[in-house]
Design a protein that fits this description.
This protein is mainly α. It contains 19 helices and 6 strands. The chain has 3 domains: about 110 residues, Fumarase C, Chain B, domain 1; about 230 residues, Up-down Bundle (Fumarase C, Chain A, domain 2); about 80 residues, Ribonucleotide Reductase Protein R1, domain 1, CATH 1.10.40.30. Helix content is about 60%, strand content about 5%. The strands form 3 sheets. A two-stranded antiparallel sheet has the order 1-2. A hairpin with a 2-residue loop joins strand 1 and strand 2. Helix 1 runs antiparallel to helix 6 and helix 2 packs antiparallel against helix 3. The protein is elongated, with a radius of gyration of 31 Å. It starts with 17 loop residues before the first helix and ends with a helix. GO terms for molecular function: N6-(1,2-dicarboxyethyl)AMP AMP-lyase (fumarate-forming) activity. Keywords: Lyase, Purine biosynthesis. It holds the Pfam family Lyase_1.
């Protein structure tokens, strides 16, 4: 039996790929969640005393600053303290409450200690903390990474706007486009989804054990607790949900994760298309000094960035789908399935962020082989059959031709046959159509038959 390894991270996100996803850990790790919980507890204390509830007075600015230091300076000492306390309490939010109480004593603020976690259920703290951490992770880390990829796509779309290429509908030669226009399609699709993500709500509840403010009213029946709660939650920079059970219903999370998964699906489509263009020779990969493509075939440069992105988008999509499916349901007023599920939010975003990192790198390590695109076009003159039959039909309608069934005529000429420039020119010369139409068709090549592709890309 082999000896056990030294302690190792089980997840590749915390091991091999740690550097690429580390910024998410500030928000979506257990420590990030606990820091947010401390923030929510501290700001609730300040909100209660600011309203002079239960005979308190607003804290001095210096005391508020010291209190806020509990989360602004949250570090390893607090992480260790909470781990030790949770081992006793078997309750993570209760451990956070005890941490705040302990620090209040240290700060000489014992007089307000009983307002710590006042009238709160754990899910008041958790819903606000998840709203804060997910919002910050999305807005500060994940969305900027996606925007970087979109910016690169826009750059490539404009750079290659005029690069004519053979399209492949159903994998077969089809009406040409330009590489820039095809890349622009992905940027356009992603920007639509980004707008939805940017408009996301991040909802929290703060209404007690079953969402009724019962304990609050027992303590102070004359206070407008729903208004106090709303002002407090919105003051944190998140959105307020007034009508809930013990938990905030997570519908905002379902909506957000579905949008993120949608973006991931578009990115997955992008990775498989770029991979295919590389396979066709349309894009050349720029060699990286010292890198190895194959352990046995020295010539190879493998499209590993796009393959890595593809796999991580699939993992992220599966996790986001599971989050959406699970979080939409809670038995009666509360069950704990969401607690375990939400601990994997960071994993889902981690795989997505890793994919974005690889996509960004991959898009910077390819160059367009315009000669390959032109050579491919030059061996597929039959794609002009669409243009010719359409022009003939217009001539028939205009009374300049009596040709019967132009489509069938071109089908007979081109379907299943290789037709070159000379053969098409001879065919067009013999057509009964007006001279202007004939000259337009004779001037046409696969490389110029791209319609408005360049304009659309730009």
């Amino acid at each position: 039996m082999t000896a056990s390894l030294p302690v190792q991270p089980l997840s590749p996100l915390d091991g091999r790929y740690r550097a690429a996803v580390a910024p998410l850990a500030d928000y979506l790790s257990e420590a990030g969640l606990n820091r947010a919980r401390v923030e929510v507890e501290v700001e609730w204390l300040i909100a209660l005393t600011d309203r002079s509830l239960f005979g308190t007075a607003p804290l001095a600015d210096a005391d508020k600053e010291r209190l806020r230091g509990l989360y602004l300076d949250f570090g390893q000492a607090e992480i260790d303290w909470l781990a030790e306390k949770e081992a006793v309490t078997r309750h993570d939010v209760k451990a956070v409450e005890y941490l705040v109480r302990d620090r209040l004593s240290t700060l000489g603020l014992d007089a307000i200690a009983e307002l710590t976690h006042f009238a709160c259920t754990s899910e008041d703290i958790n819903s606000a903390s998840y709203a804060l951490t997910v919002k910050r992770a999305v807005e500060r880390v994940w969305l900027p990474a996606l925007q970087d990829v979109i910016a690169k796509l826009r750059e490539l779309a404009i750079e290659h706007a005029d690069a004519a290429m053979l399209s492949r509908t159903h994998g077969q030669p089809a009406t040409p486009s330009t590489m820039g226009k095809e890349i622009a399609v992905f940027a356009w699709r992603l920007e639509r989804v980004v707008k939805r993500i940017e408009g996301s709500e991040y909802l929290a509840k703060f209404s007690g054990a079953t969402g009724t403010w019962s304990a609050h009213l027992a303590a102070e029946p004359d206070a407008d607790w729903p208004r106090i709660a709303r002002e407090y939650i919105e003051g944190l920079g998140i959105d307020f949900n007034i009508l809930t059970t013990q938990i905030e219903s997570h519908d905002w999370q379902v909506e957000l994760y579905d949008h993120v998964r949608h973006a991931g699906g578009i990115l997955h489509n992008l990775t498989t298309d770029i991979w295919t263009y590389i396979s066709l020779g349309y894009f050349a990969q720029i060699p990286v000094a010292g890198a190895t493509g194959s352990s046995t075939m020295p010539h190879k440069i493998n499209p590993i960035r796009f393959e890595n992105a593809e796999a991580n988008l699939e993992l992220s999509g599966a996790l986001l789908g599971s989050l959406s499916q699970t979080l939409v349901t809670s038995r009666l007023q509360r069950d704990l399935t969401d607690s375990t599920t939400q601990r994997n939010i960071g994993v889902a975003f981690g795989h997505s962020l890793l994919a974005l990192d690889n996509l960004r790198r991959g898009l910077n390590e390819i160059s367009l082989s315009r000669d390959v695109l032109l050579a491919d076009l030059d061996t597929n003159w039959e794609v002009l059959g669409e243009a010719i039959q359409t022009a003939i039909r217009a001539e028939v309608v205009a009374g300049r031709s009596t040709i019967q069934d132009p489509y069938a005529m071109l089908k007979e000429l081109t379907r299943g046959h290789r037709v070159g420039a000379a053969e098409l020119a001879e065919f067009v010369q013999g057509l009964e159509i007006g001279d202007a139409a004939k000259q337009r068709l004779l001037a046409l090549t696969p490389a110029t038959y791209v319609g408005l592709a360049e304009t659309l890309a730009k």
